[in-house]
Amino acid sequence: MGYLLKNATVFTDNEFKKTDIFIEDNIIVSVGAGCYNDSVSFDFNNLFIFPGFTDVHVHLREPGFLYKETIKTGTMAAAHGGYTSVCAMPNLKPVPDSRENILEEVKAIENDAVIHVYPYGAITVGEQGREMADLDGMAEYAVAFSDDGKGVQNDDMMRAAMLKAKSLGKMIVAHCEDNTLLNGGYIHKGKYAELHGHKGICSESEWKQIERDLKLVKETGCKYHVCHISTKESVELIRQAKKDGLDVTCETAPHYLVLDDMDIQEEGRFKMNPPLRDKSDRLALIEGIKDGTIDVIATDHAPHSKEEKSKGLKDSLMGVVGIETAFPVLYTELVEKNIISLEKLMELLNINARKIFGIGSEIKVGEKADITVFDLNAEYKINPDEFLSMGKSTPFEGKSVKGKCVMTMVGGKIVWKA
Ligand SMILES: [Zn+2]
């Protein structure tokens, strides 16, 4: 028995067309009008079918922090957001820094994930920056290597890790942050911090380390991807590195494209790392998206408990959830406002991740049926109580958006349905 999805506007072959999709035995058997007996049929007239989105930067918190999120709740939230593939960051307990430790995570994924989850291996033991992790031992399971949550402070360590990753045919995915420049800051060192007496994180703390890494990439030839860039200087450095022919890519997150420091309120849901920057940074990031300097939009979905996020700007933990709001926020703020096309958004949420990381989905005959269905006319206010994620802290709470996920399939199996 198969599924016949009829009359939707489908993103296939890099364009949108109104057609039918037939799915059987987990596979897309046909894209085009046809008649199939013995199938469950859905009429998706007025709806869109996208290839399932890929998020290369999420925190699923398992193993180690099950009170914040689990692989089960995190991947259900992802399916609810239209995602069928995610890459899970390694700031876990135990940190996946050895074969044994990454296998603990892999087992939990096999048991509980409802979508595809690709774990990162850590760059250094315990993400402590002192000793290189067992990259060889993890290579079979790790999608790439990252110490996300922290920058690798030591230049020699980063150089050695790049050489090792390169020898394994793997990418370094870097959270760039120079600890010597932080000075106890917790929101952007800009207008809002000054007006309200908060300690700020300067932009240099991010772009200085990107600048260092780009030198090391030039030296080592390692394939390199920068996490969640937030400053205009970062955009310019990466733009130049690409012009220079380096094998460099990067991501930003929806909140950096839509909000800036003057949108901050005195609540933990406006606190994340890197912080919401200046308006000029936000506009530079949008330019970076338009001209292809920024390759992918990742959410940096980072759930914490209610208590951890309820201590105001200074004392709440850093990190906000995002996987259930990314598409509607980006569609509403970028596509509906004619800043980018819906085709471009497909590049940012799916196509480029496939090119860079070699993971994700396509709507094409013979491909596994990883798809998501959206109603782009559905208008609603973002309500964290409706999230499947255990994390509820988002700067987009109460925001009016368009675009609701109606159904998500992974390997032809319905994993979310409204
Ligand atoms: Zn990070």
Helix and strand arrangement:
Layout: E1 2-12, E2 15-24, E3 27-31, E4 39-43, E5 48-51, E6 53-58, H1 71-80, E7 83-88, H2 99-112, E8 116-119, H3 135-138, H4 155-167, E9 172-174, E10 187-188, H5 191-196, E11 200-201, H6 204-220, E12 224-226, H7 232-243, E13 248-252, H8 254-258, H9 279-290, E14 296-297, H10 312-315, H11 326-335, H12 342-357, E15 371-381, E16 400-410, E17 413-417
Parallel strand pairs: 1-4, 1-5, 6-7, 7-8, 9-12, 10-11, 12-13, 13-14
Antiparallel strand pairs: 1-2, 2-3, 5-15, 15-16, 16-17
The chain binds zinc ion.
Zinc ion binds next to loops.
* Main sheet properties: 8 strands, mixed
So what's the overall shape?
A: globular
In N-to-C order, the SSE pattern is: EEEEEEHEHEHHEEHEHEHEHHEHHHEEE
Which ligands occur here? zinc ion
Unreliable parts: none
How much beta, percentage-wise?
15-25%
How many strands in all? Answer: 17
Query: What kind of oligomer do you see?
Result: single chain
Radius of gyration: 21 Å
Mean pLDDT: 97
